[in-house]
Amino acid sequence: MINKTVPNVSEALKGVKDGMTFMFGGFGLSGIPENAIAELVRLNIKGLTCISNNAGVDDFGLGLLLQQNQVKKMISSYVGENDEFERQMLSGELEVELIPQGTLAERCRAAQAGIPAFYTPAGYGTEVQDGKETREFNGKMHIMERAFDADFGFIKAWKGDAAGNLVFKGTARNFNPNMCGAAKVTVAEVEELVPVGELDPNEIHIPGIFVQRIFKGAHFEKRIEQRTVRQR
Length: 232
Fold this sequence. Notes:
The N and C termini lie far apart (about 55 Å). The chain has helices at about 10, 35-45, 65, 85-90, 100-115, 175-180, and strands spanning about 20-25, 50, 70-75, 95-100, 115-120, 135, 140-145, 150-160, 165, 185-195, 215. A hairpin with a 4-residue loop joins strand 8 and strand 9 (about 165). By secondary structure, the protein is of the alpha/beta class. Pfam families: CoA_trans.
């Protein structure tokens, strides 16, 4: 068995450089790789292309990278919670590619499966179609979308073992599974790191073959974007 455990986030992120393309799991602030993002902020690498469902909020998640102008391009499906993102996009400081959420998920999954491209009707007849090949299937027009080509994928899971097997919990099981194995190097940070054999094989969501590095994260804040409660 290959032991994929690394002692800390610094070791897990060895090899990251300016100008790279990164994938970040998560939906809103749920299931985001908090430790990996904090380390990227500390390293202050620049010119990044970030693939993520969203851009976090102003002072958390990918918003921390935006604050330091580390991001050159965002590829996302929703960015409505971040004022700094809006400012940078409208000023032209930040390149933005907005794509349908299902297309985002499938471009991750296609990369994971080694499929170079696929056809989807989502976005046909809109700006999403611009510059892309189109084709008719069963009387309906489709756009050809290409699989992502990312250098690192940063994943957050609930539990993992030394072989890289992962278990997700609740809403954190969002874009994380599709991004595992979709980049050249997948780095998983987990809340609980257990010995091999302790995870029930029937409950493993992602097998270790899709993960290159795994470490036990620390100090997860698990913030909530919008908390709504009823009045007493």
